[in-house]
Design a protein that fits this description.
4-stranded antiparallel sheet; 3-stranded antiparallel sheet; mainly beta; globular
């Protein structure tokens, strides 16, 4: 399978924790759908202290996985929202 495009889309979205509304990432997202996974190379700014945990409420919002040979975070449904 093909790897995701390294440059990726130019549109950035803000990813927030659903529990406490804390900003987690600025992410270059492509397409119109919901956020299912975040490729590590497309994260513009990471505001988390620990990997996949909210810095404010310490809630786990994603899991580290390999997708198409590239590191990514698989988002747990209902834990985050984007703007």
């Amino acid at each position: 399978m093909a790897k995701p495009n390294k440059k990726g889309p130019t549109r950035t979205v803000d990813v927030f924790c659903r529990e406490c509304k804390t900003l987690l990432y600025k992410y270059r997202k492509g397409g119109k759908g919901t956020l299912v996974k975040c490729f590590k190379e497309r994260i513009v700014t990471d505001y988390t202290d620990r990997v996949c945990h909210c810095p404010h409420c310490q809630q786990l919002f994603a899991r580290e996985v390999m997708i198409r040979g590239v590191g990514a975070y698989k988002i747990i449904g209902g834990k985050v929202f984007i703007k």
